[in-house]
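Input chain follows. Return structure tokens only.
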Amino acid sequence: MLQSILRNLALLREMPPVDVVVVSHDHYDHLDYPTIRALAKTRVPFVASLGVGAHLEYWGVQAERITELDWWESYTVPNTGVVLTAAPSQHFSGRGLKSRNSTLWSSLAIRSPRHSVFFSGDTGLTTEYRSIREQLGPFDVVMLEIGAFYPAWGDIHLGPDNALKAHAMLGGVFMPVHWGTFALAMHAWDQPAERLLELAPHTGAQLLMPLLGQPVEPAHAEIVKPWWREVENAVVKPAPETEGEITLPTSVPWPLD
């Protein structure tokens, strides 16, 4: 987790000025304190799900820079013509045991005069995607989370299989997100990508899976090159006192994201 936070801050320093910061919900991997503290020193506006603004204001973001959205409410980014609309998702929220579901979680539709993008946030499979497409679509690109995942989490995370079902309801070029960053499940870091690559040809979904940081044009998406296979995996050796086979747990606890 610390390594990911440091990487986020390094990337933030390299980024050009942004027009708006969007926060889908308040889990730690979507609402990172050091990153928000750094962004609080700028003048960028924040758009967050209902109730999340309290975190932002407490961490130093001026109240006038924060807009909270309930589902189906919209915000227009000043001087851009870009409209953000919060939409339903099937997840939960909370940053501690006593704050479960005290704030809202959302997906988001982002529409400019020429293009439209859908971002799932964290979610399980829901038929609300049909309503989202009818009211906010069509979409040029849909960004759906595919990992971490586990069968017992089917109601709050998609995973590759259900992400393809969601994509069938939404349409557009499919850009998978929310994988290969935090180790939140028992599967290999690249398993969601491999599973999606295996299933997509049978559904007709057009995938967009660029190398991290690579600029792409979704309308001219090429055949996916599995760049993640070239990434060197660190080999973790057992401690010297560990002998024999390491037994993995048979179940995975309820996720914190």
